[in-house]
Amino acid sequence: MKVKIILISIFILAVSVRLFQLDQLPGEWFGDISNVHEYVTEILQGKWPFYFFQSPGPLYHYLIAPLVIIFQNNGYLTYKIASVAVSLLGLVTTYILYRSVFSSSIAMTGILLMGSSFWFLVWSRLGNSQIVIPVISGLMGYFLVKFIRQANLVNLLLGVLAASLGLYTYPQTFIFPLIWLAVLTGYYLMRRKWRQGALNFSISFILLLVFGLPFFQIVMVQKDLFTSGYLGEKVVPVFRTNPLDTGQKFLTFYGKTLMLFSFSGERIFRVNIPGKAMLDGITSIFLLAGILYLILEKRRKVLFIILFMIGSMIIPASSPGINEIEIPSSSRTIAVIPYLYMLAASGIFYFYNIFKKKAGNISAILAIASLVMMIVYFNLDRYFREYPQVLPDKNYAAGIIIADYMDRNFGENFSVYFGSCCWGEWGQPEPKAVYYQMRKKKNFVEYTHYLSSCKEINHLPAVVVVGPGDQKLLAEYRRCFLQAEIVEVDGKKGNTVFNIINIK
């Protein structure tokens, strides 16, 4: 009963930090969310899309489609709610993974840390599809442990199925089937069970081929994408360069990727405070302590599997074909989050045992609880206080502001054009960020590009969105449409957010 109460409290905290100010942070709809929206829209229209849209595959979009039906017409918030739900599913799969390997105390500690982790929290609320990756990596690990302990066909089947889902998720998860086969092979080699190992490897390999058939079909249909397109350009060039140079570059990138955890993190503003390590300092210490704990407790096989999972899952993120500015990447390494916090939770338990011997049980509990609460506080402070300051325009969401203005002031008979776009930091707001967040229909919306000339307007009455301070462009529209009304729309601080040209 006590365990259930603590576990429920942890999940309440995880839900609370995911829903707090969710409609405000992060604020601006961006290109990746447009991609998710367009894919899910095709699903809801009954087109049954089954392809890779740049990097993401079909899995996440089909998974969240029911939630989009429930929360549709809520703009960006719809997709943030969907990613919150998937992140909570990730915590559930992580908990059952931890519980299958360690005690309930370590399992609960682990998901408390992971649930409040800045790294995981960013992706939990972002609305993008990478958040499904920890769900799959956790499931794969769970069924791997179950099969090692209970060598039955059901666990093997479910484990291979979980690994196969990586083929339909992201390029960095294509390695999951290989990881399954490698861990299984390594385990049986260590146990010297050659015949049983060969049999289970063969069954796994055949099942992977069966589950991979739809993926092979995707590759054939989207051959250009996988050879010279968005995905191919990150891999194919590797085979055209000197092997020695390629190897050196891979090792350099791999080292930078390892530094991501505790020393130097991703530099992309939207998913991190640029350059800051993805784990806080205390968690990093506990992670090292967890490695020591498993060695001292003679659970070296468990440690080997955890370290192998971490080490192999970051291989795709270190591809020499990736632009160096994208190294390290928190999105391409997100699969390792459950395994990092597994080690950190073990380290906390190791410190607890040390404190318990020196100061007694109550003092040890209070000391460890204080350290854990400090970790939770540092991560939440980093997300809710520091993170908004590095978002474009300090998280000022012009896209939804423009969309709301359109809904309030212009009816269905109006057409919408963009005379300029992307005037804010990092190219925001995008026309799609406005169009996809308008809740009321309009006669016509040209959202695929912004106008090169006022002569392109051919659906009247119309409104044209123009960025702040573009007086030359406003003067051009005055000459084109003498009766046009120009309205400056101000923000909360009295600054002009955008201009509206009302053409009747």
TrEMBL record:
<keyword id="KW-0328">Glycosyltransferase</keyword>
<feature type="transmembrane region" description="Helical">
    <location>
        <begin position="277"/>
        <end position="296"/>
    </location>
</feature>
<dbReference type="GO" id="GO:0009103">
    <property type="term" value="P:lipopolysaccharide biosynthetic process"/>
</dbReference>
<feature type="transmembrane region" description="Helical">
    <location>
        <begin position="76"/>
        <end position="98"/>
    </location>
</feature>
<keyword id="KW-1133">Transmembrane helix</keyword>
<dbReference type="Pfam" id="PF13231">
    <property type="entry name" value="PMT_2"/>
</dbReference>
<dbReference type="InterPro" id="IPR038731">
    <property type="entry name" value="RgtA/B/C-like"/>
</dbReference>
<feature type="transmembrane region" description="Helical">
    <location>
        <begin position="129"/>
        <end position="145"/>
    </location>
</feature>
<feature type="transmembrane region" description="Helical">
    <location>
        <begin position="174"/>
        <end position="190"/>
    </location>
</feature>
<dbReference type="InterPro" id="IPR050297">
    <property type="entry name" value="LipidA_mod_glycosyltrf_83"/>
</dbReference>
<keyword id="KW-0808">Transferase</keyword>
<feature type="transmembrane region" description="Helical">
    <location>
        <begin position="105"/>
        <end position="123"/>
    </location>
</feature>
<feature type="transmembrane region" description="Helical">
    <location>
        <begin position="303"/>
        <end position="322"/>
    </location>
</feature>
<feature type="transmembrane region" description="Helical">
    <location>
        <begin position="362"/>
        <end position="380"/>
    </location>
</feature>
<dbReference type="GO" id="GO:0005886">
    <property type="term" value="C:plasma membrane"/>
</dbReference>
<feature type="transmembrane region" description="Helical">
    <location>
        <begin position="197"/>
        <end position="220"/>
    </location>
</feature>
<dbReference type="GO" id="GO:0016763">
    <property type="term" value="F:pentosyltransferase activity"/>
</dbReference>
<feature type="domain" description="Glycosyltransferase RgtA/B/C/D-like">
    <location>
        <begin position="57"/>
        <end position="211"/>
    </location>
</feature>
<keyword id="KW-0472">Membrane</keyword>
<feature type="transmembrane region" description="Helical">
    <location>
        <begin position="334"/>
        <end position="355"/>
    </location>
</feature>
<keyword id="KW-0812">Transmembrane</keyword>
<keyword id="KW-1003">Cell membrane</keyword>
<protein>
    <recommendedName>
        <fullName>Glycosyltransferase RgtA/B/C/D-like domain-containing protein</fullName>
    </recommendedName>
</protein>
